[in-house]
Amino acid sequence: MHTVVVEPSGAGADDVLAVARGGARIELSPAALDGIAAARKIVDDLAGGPDPVYGVSTGFGALAVRHVDPALRGRLQHSLVVSHAAGMGPRVEREVVRALMFLRLKTLASGYTGVRPVVAETMAAVLNAGITPVVHEYGSLGCSGDLAPLAHCAQVLMGEGEAEGPDGTVRPAAELLAEAGIEPVVLREKEGLALINGTDGMLGMLVMACADLERLFTSADIAAALTLEALMGTERVLAPELHAVRPHPGQAASAQNMRRVLAGSGLTGRHQSGIDGLPAAPRVQDAYSVRCAPQVAGAGRDTLAHARLVAERELAAAVDNPLVLPDGRVESNGNFHGAPVGYVLDFLAVAVADLGSISERRTDRLLDANRSHGLPPFLAHDPGVDSGLMIAQYTQAALVSENKRLAVPASVDSIPSSAMQEDHVSMGWSAARKLRTAIGNLTRIVAVELVAATRALEIRENTLGRGPVLSPAARAVVAAVRGAGVAGPGTDRFTAPDLAAAEAFVGEGRLVAAAEGVTGPLA
């Protein structure tokens, strides 16, 4: 099994994905353990002194004015965790919790938090044992970090609360730790605060969203190319010299992807005349949803590139309050504020909504006999008796509409908390949660366009009665889609299973793999 070694310098996106989705094991490097121990010595020295230090010898938030007696400091940290484990609603996904815990461990390993090595070692052991704390949908405002989600994880380290075991069953955390041979942690000064004060949940979801969107942007380019081909549009708008005069890198990448998928097509370029007996439908230009596909998808790609930059910076950060500095100071700060992450999560939701919107417009064009240049209404076998993909487009439109609602930014909102001590919050967790939903919807939207485009291509080929007509890449995609259980042209049948199979085909990366089998690696 793959092992991720946690170093003081931070973590990479691949590390997060390996732990969250791949179940990779975790090891703390000797350098990380040394740094943790050095920072802990600073905390121990301050804990023995007379001066109040936030997080060490005081209360929290609006209660930071109280100096806490040494005899009560263990209770202080325990109380912090259990009181902040106040989430409600459905459980969040296992991969999100694993990403959240790994990223908190990454910060502990930075040597800026002041926990004892045993705390970090216990967190690594819990992850390696496949124990996943129960974390709820609601509870984070994205400032002072993802407090409630992280508190539910910290509670499990103490042997309290509930968690999902390796077999998927939710049980008391104490039982799961005992079975794994893990000793619960008894928290000391600063440790409860260090376990819950970070942007780890929203960051983990951003890292996974970036990985998913990288695949989806390429999938959308492939689907757009197939639609252009099925509509007998022109590939001349994809020429590199046209995109060079507007030098957005994402736009150039999308145009190149489409051009490579369409290479060798016998259907493209027929936009100004009929083709072998099909009705002539002279067009000077294709519709925007076809012609501007690289511009829209490319803008999304550039947004994704910015989001990756923010994620990389955050992955290299140590987010905690207060921070234990190497010179012995313990300083309060505002690095836990989730604005940098929340903004890009919202930016991506806008890009996702617009990419889905243009995909749906292309699908509608394929299904409309007045605009599809010779294709049957709704791609039906016997229109009037058969409805074809009419209602598949309804489903797609519903998903597009939902994504438009999810594109409303969460990060522009703020609700004061903690008796106005925490009077401006990021709502980054909420931005991350809605982006995950939007990405799932986009996968379905692209899948519907794929179903329509592949059916339209086969209808074109069957109508022409000769070949080769399709581009080699399109032919490979059509064959792979049919192999995945999605029906081609024919009389009506139960549509939902076809759409579900297409969704899995796109979501699992098989669409990209099928095209790349001909084109080579796409951007």
Which helices and strands occur, and which strands form pairs?
Layout: E1 3-6, H1 13-20, E2 25-28, H2 30-47, H3 73-84, E3 88-91, H4 94-108, H5 117-128, E4 132-133, E5 136-138, H6 147-157, E6 162-164, E7 170-172, H7 173-180, H8 191-196, H9 200-230, H10 240-244, H11 249-262, H12 288-291, H13 293-315, E8 323-324, E9 330-331, H14 339-367, H15 390-406, H16 428-464, H17 472-483, H18 495-507, H19 510-519
Parallel strand pairs: 1-2
Antiparallel strand pairs: 3-5, 4-6, 6-7, 8-9
Helix pairs in contact: 1-4, 3-6, 4-5, 4-9, 9-11, 9-13, 9-14, 9-16, 11-13, 13-14, 14-15, 14-16, 15-16, 16-17, 16-18, 17-19
EC number: 4.3.1.3
Protein name: Histidine ammonia-lyase
Cross-link (5-imidazolinone (Ala-Gly)): 143-145
Descriptive notes:
The protein is mainly alpha-helical and 523 residues long. The protein has 19 helices and nine strands. It has helices at residues 13-20, 30-47, 73-84, 94-108, 117-128, 147-157, 173-180, 191-196, 200-230, 240-244, 249-262, 288-291, 293-315, 339-367, 390-406, 428-464, 472-483, 495-507, 510-519; strands at 3-6, 25-28, 88-91, 132-133, 136-138, 162-164, 170-172, 323-324, 330-331. The protein has a three-stranded antiparallel beta sheet with strand order 4-6-7. Strand 1, helix 1 and strand 2 form a beta-alpha-beta unit. The longest helix has 37 residues, at 428-464.
